[in-house]
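Researcher: I'm preparing a figure for a lab meeting and need a structural model of a single chain. I don't have an experimental structure, so a prediction will have to do for now. The sequence is pasted below. Please return the structure as tokens so I can convert it later.
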Amino acid sequence: MLALLLMTLVVTLSQDGKVPIVAPPSGPDEERETKRSAARPPLSFDSPMPVPEVAQWLNGSAPDFSDRAKVFLFVFWASNITPAREALPRLSVIADGYRSQGVVVVGMTTEPADGIRPLLDSPIYKDAITFAIGCDPDRSTFQQFMTASWQTSLPTVFLAQGGKVLWIGTPREVEAVLKSVLAGTWTVHGQADAHQRDAATMKRAGEFEQRLNVLVDRRDWDGMLAVLGEMEVDSDASLAREGRLLRIGVLQQAGRTDEALRACDALVESTKDWIVAAEVAKMLSSPLFVKHDVSRATLGALKAIALSKQKQALAYVALARVQARCGQSDLALRSLERALTLALPDERDLVQEEIEMLKSRPAPTP
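Model: Understood. Here is the structure written out token by token.
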């Protein structure tokens, strides 16, 4: 969730916009209202649909956003993010399949036209993308949709009709929601609650990022550890997991290597989350770690595979990295081949890149 480099702690997080600031309350009634407002982003389910402010359109022209009968599907994407890029052909299938029912798919990117034109003209995408792409280099539309709804990951989809936002989510989920909207069975009630919780979590994640950025610049390790202590007890399990993993990187960068290794041992021993075990394994086998430890890393990777019931590709990627670090290239390649058979569509590129890197680099000294 947090775009923090666990190993080097060189934080280069892009701030996509300012987090909305809630004015301090002046009395009890206003304080209650402030708390309610803080739990809901400015743009959410049932909010008025923003009208995009787009500098240039490619692959088509600007739709008529004033048509309240149309169902608009906005997808925010970027050409350098594989899942976002690969979502475009799938959304084109939706655009073609539901066009006769009044569905209009619109792509949005903050990249300039010159930056994405080669992709749109490439053999893979030229005939596969059948909807208009809006270029938003000044990020005005990004601010209207993504920042206002506290969304930070790409691709993100917004469904809107009748001047109202109906739903916010991912391309993988959108068709089921779209069918419900077209059938007249979709309501925002109930669905909005879960979205508000997710949005509030993203807001807290952004605030943690901002605080940690300042402390990294100052090399204030104790201050970072205090912030991470707050993350580790966060109500969101993913955010708490990030805090526990990031603590290891902070400790080793602060020169407290033995403490970092003890934290690794404690995490691997206690966790029931395969992702935690896999991330610890990758950290411990990385040449960037001050004191890499392939024995501990191997235990972490094997536990990740066991916890995942041998069904998660990225657990095998973690094991492959440890094996490669030990000079066991043949074993690492076998682990990656196993990962490739398990990989989801948005994981296949990552596994393939690991295979290519393994084949191209000389084996390290065991």
